[in-house]
Amino acid sequence: MSDERIERDFMARDEQERQAFLEQTWCDKCLQENLGMNTPLEYEFKGIVFIEGKCNQCGEVVLTELTDEEF
């Protein structure tokens, strides 16, 4: 497995799936769920797929780790 990030195309997902990932979030700084994220970036790192963006409320990085059934 590579220690480098492999960029993936978040926009290749269908609209409903993209919206779910953008809305169903957890922010470690706000300590709240479903505040939403913007500027999503999808990538694979060490065999794990992540979607990273910025919290709509505070602007901190929010990170979603995808499990096998999510991709």
Indicate the topology.
Blueprint: E1 6-8, H1 15-23, E2 26-27, E3 32-33, E4 37-45, E5 48-55, E6 61-65
Antiparallel strand pairs: 1-4, 2-3, 4-5, 5-6
Task: Describe this protein's structure.
- This protein is mainly β.
- It has one domain (6-70).
- It is built from one helix and six strands; from the N terminus they run βαβββββ.
- It has one helix at 15-23; strands spanning 6-8, 26-27, 32-33, 37-45, 48-55, 61-65.
- The chain has a four-stranded antiparallel beta sheet, covered by helices on one side. A two-stranded antiparallel sheet has the order 2-3.
- A hairpin with a 4-residue loop joins strand 2 and strand 3.
List keywords for this structure.
single chain; 71 residues; four-stranded antiparallel beta sheet
Q: How many domains make up the coordinates?
A: 1
- Calculate the mean pLDDT score and round it: 92
Q: Supply Rg.
A: 12 Å
Overall structural class, as computed from helix and strand content, comes to mainly beta
Biggest sheet character: 4 strands, antiparallel
Number of beta-strand segments = 6
Shape: globular
Identify the strand order in the major beta sheet: 1-4-5-6
Distance between the termini: 19 Å
Helix segment tally: 1
Strand content: 35-45%
Percent helix: 10-25%
Uncertain segments of ≥5 residues (pLDDT<50)?
Answer: none
> What is the helix/strand order?
EHEEEEE
